[in-house]
Specification:
Blueprint (H helix, E strand, L loop, with lengths): L12 H10 L3 H29 L4 H17 L7
Length: about 80
């Protein structure tokens, strides 16, 4: 099991109410949301670094990758939640 640290987080009341309707394990839900955000930020940094070194992505490259992502999401509905 991963090491954990207890923290206090303040959220809007309406968000907490909606969150409790979605899950019985608020901590796990929030931890997954934070992990997803961290992955998103790290990927963005990596993409910016790549473009700084190699130039901007071309429209063809972007279209190819969008098609690949769409194919993955179309074949794996669990990936949509990620």
């Amino acid at each position: 099991m991963a090491e954990t640290t207890r923290i206090t987080v303040t959220l809007p009341t309406a968000d907490v109410e909606a969150l409790k309707k979605l899950t019985d394990n608020v901590s796990a839900y929030v931890a997954e949301a934070v992990a997803r955000k961290i992955r998103h930020e790290l990927l963005g940094e990596e993409l910016r670094r790549y473009q700084d070194e190699h130039g901007a992505f071309t429209e063809d490259e972007l279209a190819e990758e969008r098609a690949e992502i769409a194919a993955v999401l179309g074949s794996d509905t669990s990936a949509r939640a990620a």
